[in-house]
């Protein structure tokens, strides 16, 4: 993996983290207001979910260079 | 049953009927089905616009959002009829600051041994001159 590619991957990671954090926060706020009587824990849970998704995406992206990718050959 | 549901904040399916009754009594007919629709709609919108997807999709969505903000802000300003104060142009780039900081510290670390030995030699020479 070249330096340039690594830099791009990190940039994507940061952007994705921002998006997922915002999404998790938003969905947590929606659920907290709609279902759970404006408590704090759904908001925190949603933010945590967003962070977890971002971390997992980042991990897969950074590892994808070293993981073997295969295709199933079509049977004729 | 309704009182027990709200004290610990959890909705069980058993209490759903009493919850629906309580809601339509107090919140003006916002039933459980309405809430499910609202929450499900929010999740669907998030899924459909690619917010919950891959890293590549996430950065694309961020770019689209960044591009869509100035027209939206302009529309809001026109709607409310006042001018927002002009945002000051900040000439600070965190990326450049971070990069230059990293380069300076690593350079300092790399010249540290030779610098330390130079200063030690100078210090020893100074002490030797004093004792002459």
UniProtKB/TrEMBL annotation, chain A:
<dbReference type="GO" id="GO:0061617">
    <property type="term" value="C:MICOS complex"/>
</dbReference>
<keyword id="KW-0472">Membrane</keyword>
<keyword id="KW-0812">Transmembrane</keyword>
<dbReference type="Pfam" id="PF04418">
    <property type="entry name" value="DUF543"/>
</dbReference>
<comment type="function">
    <text>Component of the MICOS complex, a large protein complex of the mitochondrial inner membrane that plays crucial roles in the maintenance of crista junctions, inner membrane architecture, and formation of contact sites to the outer membrane.</text>
</comment>
<protein>
    <recommendedName>
        <fullName>MICOS complex subunit MIC10</fullName>
    </recommendedName>
</protein>
<keyword id="KW-0496">Mitochondrion</keyword>
<dbReference type="InterPro" id="IPR007512">
    <property type="entry name" value="Mic10"/>
</dbReference>
<comment type="subunit">
    <text>Component of the mitochondrial contact site and cristae organizing system (MICOS) complex.</text>
</comment>
<keyword id="KW-0999">Mitochondrion inner membrane</keyword>
<comment type="similarity">
    <text>Belongs to the MICOS complex subunit Mic10 family.</text>
</comment>
<keyword id="KW-1133">Transmembrane helix</keyword>
<feature type="transmembrane region" description="Helical">
    <location>
        <begin position="18"/>
        <end position="36"/>
    </location>
</feature>
From TrEMBL, chain B:
<dbReference type="Pfam" id="PF15884">
    <property type="entry name" value="QIL1"/>
</dbReference>
<comment type="function">
    <text>Component of the MICOS complex, a large protein complex of the mitochondrial inner membrane that plays crucial roles in the maintenance of crista junctions, inner membrane architecture, and formation of contact sites to the outer membrane.</text>
</comment>
<protein>
    <recommendedName>
        <fullName>MICOS complex subunit MIC13</fullName>
    </recommendedName>
</protein>
<comment type="subunit">
    <text>Component of the mitochondrial contact site and cristae organizing system (MICOS) complex.</text>
</comment>
<dbReference type="GO" id="GO:0044284">
    <property type="term" value="C:mitochondrial crista junction"/>
</dbReference>
<keyword id="KW-0812">Transmembrane</keyword>
<dbReference type="GO" id="GO:0042407">
    <property type="term" value="P:cristae formation"/>
</dbReference>
<dbReference type="InterPro" id="IPR026769">
    <property type="entry name" value="Mic13"/>
</dbReference>
<keyword id="KW-0496">Mitochondrion</keyword>
<keyword id="KW-0999">Mitochondrion inner membrane</keyword>
<keyword id="KW-0472">Membrane</keyword>
<comment type="similarity">
    <text>Belongs to the MICOS complex subunit Mic13 family.</text>
</comment>
<dbReference type="GO" id="GO:0061617">
    <property type="term" value="C:MICOS complex"/>
</dbReference>
<keyword id="KW-1133">Transmembrane helix</keyword>
